[in-house]
Structures are given as C-alpha cells and as structure tokens.
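Pasting as-is:
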Amino acid sequence: MKLPWKHFPLSLRVRNVDLAHLLVPDMENWKGCRCILRLKGSKHVSLQILDLEEHIPKLKIIHVAGTKGKGSTCAFCEAILRECGFRTGLFTSPHLIDVRERFRINGLDISEDKFLFYFWDCWNQLKQQVTEDLPMPPLFQFLTVLAFKIFVCEQVDVAIIEVGLGGTKDSTNVIKVPVVCGIATLGMDHTEVLGDTLGEIASHKSGIFKPQIPAFTVHQLSEAMDVLHEKANELAVPLKVVEPLDERKLDGLKLSLSGDHQFTNAGLAVSLCKCWLQRTGNWEKILQNDKKEANIPEAFLRGLAAARLSGRAQIVYDLSSNCNSSSTLAESSSGDLIFYLDGAHSPESMEVCARWFSSAVQESKQLPKLLSSSHDVEIIKEVWGSGYIQSERDSSVESNKISKKILLFNCMEVRDPQILLPRLVSTCASSGTYFSKAIFVPSMSTYNKVTSGTSAIPSGISNRDLSWQFSLQRLWEKIIHGIEGDILDKSSKLDSAETLPPREFVYEDASRCSPADGIFGCSSVISSLPLTIKWLRDCVRENPALRVQVLVTGSLHLVGDVLKLLKR
C-alpha cells in the first residue's frame, strides 16, 4: 500500500519529543525511553509480530556503539564491504534531510517506493496488535525494526547497524549473535540517560557485547577502557584495541571523510571488516582477488576513499549567490560562500570540529585539497547540482578575496553551551583561527514538520521565542569581550522587521567591535534560518571580493536544516 508523503502518519523529521502523542501514551516517560526497548519477558514484541526474530542472525551483522565516530566507522565498513563485492545494508541515525537516509542498500538511500512499501507493511501489522498494554512502539524502536525488515527482505549479505543511544537498552540491542562488535571513541554525552561518569557510559556502550563474539575498540581513557575490559572478560569476549590507521598504508589515496580523527575510525573499520570476512569465510577470497601484496587489500582502500556521511566535517561551496544558471557555473567565482558543516554537540566532538575547521580554512588558498573523493563530487553534481558543488578554482583569484569566518550556531537546551562554545573558541584560537562574527538561530526542525526532502520550507516564524538564542549570544559576548551581557532582556523576541543585521555587520572583525547602545556588535540573533541563508547570500553577492566561511555546528538538526536549504 502506497500513499504520498503528505499522508504519512509520522512526522519523521521533528525532534522525537514532538512525536510522543503519536507513538507513546505517556509523555513524561518519552524522553528517557525514546531509544529503549519495549520488552515482554526476554523477547522483543515488535520482532515477534513481524516474524523477524529468526531472520536477524542471517543478516551477519556488524554492530557499532560509541560516543564519537560510530557513524563514520559504520560508513567506512559499509563502503569497504561493498567494494569487496557484498550487498550491504546500513542503518544509521539521525537523518539530516530525509528519513530514508537512515536506510542504505548498496550505498544508496532506499528508494521512496520501497521505503513506503516496507513502512506501511510494518505499521499495519503492528497497528493490528495494539492494545492498552501494547501500544505502538516509540519512534526509534519502530525505525530499528523497519531497518531489520528492509534488510531481511532486500537480502543483504551484511548489515552494519549503528547504535542509537548507549548500548545496553538501545533498540538495536536485540541482535543476539552479531558477527563482530565495535566500540568507537567514548566521551561525555547523553549523561541524563547514560550517567555522568565515563565509567557509567562505557558500561552502557559495552552492553552490545555478546558472549564469545569478537569485539574491537579504539584507545580510550583508562576509566572507560577498564570497564570495557571488565565486561569483555565477564562474557569471554576477545576484545582488541585498534591503532589509528597509518596514512602511509593508503597508497597515496585520501580518506573520503575529512579530519585527522577519521584515521581512528578508519582503523576500527578496517579491523571490523577483516574480522567479518574471516568469520564468514570470505577473507581468503579477498586476498586471492588482490592484485598485489599489501597490508590493506585494494578493495579496502577503495572503500576508505569512497565512504560518505553527510553533516560530519562536510564542506559545501554555495554557488547560488554567484550564478543564476548552470551555464555560468564554470565561469563564476564560486568561492564566495563556503559552508563547513559538522554536527558536533559534545565537548570532545566540538574540539575535533574546531581542529578540522581550522585546518580546512587554512588550506582554503589551495582549495583542491578540500575536495571530497571524485565519487562524492559526481554524486553532488548529479543530485545537488544546483548551487551545491565542489570544484577547483584559480588560486590567483582566490588569493585576492577578503576572508571572513562566521559561526552559525545552535544547540539543544540539554547541552551545555558554557562548555561547548569556550572549547570551540579556544581550540580554534590555538590554531590561529578567529571568528569575525557569530550568528545564533533556531533550527527549523524545532517548529517545522518535514517528512521528506521535498517538503516545503517556511520563510520565517512570527513571534518566535528566541530566549535560548539570546542566552547563547550573551555567553558568546562574554567569551569574546569578557562582558556579562545583561543588555538584552532574556524574554526578548524579534519581529520580522528586526531580524536581519545590516550588511556592514559581516565586514568587521570581532576584535574591532564592542557592545554599544544596547546592541552587540560581533554577534546577532536571527529568528529564521532561511532568512539567515538568504542574508549571507546577499552579502557575498553585493561584494564579489568577499569570501565568507561559515562554520555550522552545535546540532545535527541545524546542520540538516542548512543542508536542506542549500539543496534548494
């Protein structure tokens, strides 16, 4: 049964809490259980209803948990095994633009037709079994079950499954016999659910370990590593600690995912894939097909150079401010507005993001170094060809541009910006990178129900409560100028006539501006993200000598919303 997106029963783009009235009867318990299994005894009820329990072991699963890097690790694993000739299934979260991003078959998002077919099949079967004691499953649990349904029906050779939150009680942890498990870098995140110590968090993450099933992890802080080893010993799990991938082993190729931290994720992915191939009886076949002796098979190298994961250390050159048609694309000066997108939202990931951004902008005079793999460029040209392209520039033209670095930031209120923002500023400053301005804006996903990549985008929201954004702005001014920032009233709201700063705002550096007449000079709060993007485009359109480098971070919701606007 197929229905158009507008008839979809779930708003699969808004924050989970907004879906509570559709999916669970108890709003108060939603926050803590959004990724937790609904169990009946020891068996997963939804899997029983859909007759999936006995089929899951046949998926030959790689199960990956972690605080940072688990999504990148999964993306590397998928690309490596696909290059080895296997039909792959990849389940990750969250999605940035379209819910179908969570489900990849052979490296591509599942088609809309197939997604709707499998969605309604699962939805209708579960809906028929709803009782007072057995409500419809929460969002993430439903999507997890849907992933298993898709991968079973699509007959994948391997399913790479990313944990949603934690491990022990995560919806993906119905996997009883994976082929191999991985734990990426651990840090402090989701402490309201997982605990406020690294040991407690590691205990949750190691919950995906299964008796005698091999597991791999990267170097961790001792508090976390001790817990991982203890859990592994308890279950007789052979746990190995993996070194970061040696760049010299790449044979001149570049990792498709940017940032030095990706060598850690790539090293973990290589170990997971090698173990998977060995345990499934395919390792010798891969070696036989390899044309030369090497530490890393050629198929692995191709996978490491082809993996993709949106919204993590991603660079997007926005050309819509320079040209109105594709025919002028090649002739336009297209380096005017560059977005650097990373969904960092924990202290550790914010530091990694800052190091990546600093390195990327310092290389911007040699722009070809910033390009993704040729595979990604072709994908971008084909899918997002309008105003979204990565290409080489004339360096002599680029060197004459005036570069301004702007922070576009928002974070959820459960995060601590008093840790995130200082960590970002200090790490960038240690590399000689300084922001000219900062803009604080609410994410569209907090008020816009987007069900697919083609849904409408509102131009603005009237009477939008911006108290959180103003609090972020006050903190920013305190960091930059050492002021308390009590100038703005905490309950202030901006109307449409006052949302945009003057064009001159972008030209001055933060070091030359200071609060005056009740106005902050080096930061701004804008009530609408679409208006913010339009304003940035207008600024560079009016001054062709200006190169604006925008770091978008603090929230994957914000990153996804920006990507959607740039795609349009």
